[in-house]
Amino acid sequence: MNGEVWFYEPDHENGYLSNFSSHPIVLGDNTWPTSEHYYQAQKFMDPEIQEEIMRAETPEKAFELSRNYANQVRSDWLFIRCDVMKYIVYEKFRQYPSLIHLLVSTGDKPIKEHSKSDGFWGDGGDGTGRNELGKILMEVREHFSQQEPFDLIHYVDHAKLPTQYGTFIMYGFLDPKTGKDHVALCYGKPKIGEPVLIRLHSECLTGDALFSARCDCGFQLSKALENIVENGSGILLYLRQEGRGIGLLNKIRAYRLQDGGADTVEANEQLGFEADMRDYTFCRGMLSFLGVSEVKLMTNNPRKVKALTDVGINVVERVKLQEGYNEHNAHYINTKAAKLGHMFDKSHMNLKKAE
Questions:
Q1: 149: cis peptide before it, omega within 30°?
Q2: pLDDT for 322-345, tens place per residue?
Q3: Among the listed residues 180, 223, 179, the one whose alpha carbon sits nearest the alpha carbon of residue 201
Q4: What local confidence, expressed as pLDDT, does residue 351 receive?
Q5: Which residues 6+ apart lie within 8 Å of 244 measured at CB?
Q6: Given the residues 199, 244, 278, 284, the one annotated as active site
């Protein structure tokens, strides 16, 4: 495809771009099974013909019906057909935000309906066609690419991820502003109408992968995944914000200062950073892609609750996540409670006032 986005059959790659894709569109009191149904029906002024086409079992049958009534096509059809197509394509994407995310994630690549049989809406199969549908899709992409939450994150791909807790689906995302990549680990299907159990987990190489006991990150990661599986469904957003946003190497420098007596906040500040430099705004884009607007958030950090609330995510419940308290991270956890406002059950954790 040479860097181009091709589509044609709805069940093939990029099939969501096809007018034949199974995405019903609600317009007033009517529900059109596909955008193809709507487009073909608008060729006629007769409401009975429009009704018949709307009720066609498949988009292919809707197409065939329009051919059966070819002698009754409205006289101005050739002059308005592009406007009709543009309208229904915009409506399709407006009603399916997940499709907008997919479309925006194609970046600035040319989009082409690769059809040998259509040289007007498609590329004619050899690139000589007008590709009018592709042009409309690129216009829709440009429109939404300037709007939140679609400009916050770009979806890349997904795959299965078997773990010791269960098999998750891992979705990969790219933050276009920072160039950082993030993943969402999704398990099961949340019940319709119920908030989704989630965890925002910032990357911690030392705790997550190297089993460090000087923080509680690895312990929290394990417990969060376990909780999600026990719940039957949920999402863990794994965010590439190492060291509360200062990066791995600066985190090592901060560790050295902590070895000399500084707490985690003091160490960051001595290096010229804020105590916590993480930004969770882009999480709205990830959750929007996944169709999540209400959550039960596993966290002890009030900043995470506020961050999601500020971007329009309804946090209906905070679920405490207290794991891994030990002699090596006691001062670290005390500091989180005393200086960063983390909400711990002190009787359970046996925390002492931070020095």
A1: yes
A2: 888 888 888 888 888 887 777 777
A3: 223
A4: 47
A5: 202, 264, 268, 275, 276, 277, 278
A6: 278
Which spans in the chain are helix H? Answer: 35-41, 47-54, 59-68, 77-94, 97-104, 132-144, 217-231, 242-245, 248-259, 264-270, 283-289, 302-310, 330-340, 346-349
CA angle 233, 318, 216 (to 5 degrees): 85
pTM of the model: 0.87
Please tell me the distance from the alpha carbon of residue 286 to that of residue 100, in angstroms, as a whole number: 13
**Of 131 and 347, which is predicted with more confidence?**
131
The active-site residue out of 118, 123, 276, 284 is: 276
208 given a catalytic annotation:
no
Q: Is-catalytic flag, 76?
A: no
What pLDDT, on the 0 to 100 scale, is given for residue 346? 65
User: Lowest-confidence range among 1-15, 66-80, 103-117?
Assistant: 1-15
Helix (H, G, I), strand (E, B) or coil at 138: helix
Report yes or no: 290 and 169 within 8 Å, Cβ to Cβ: no
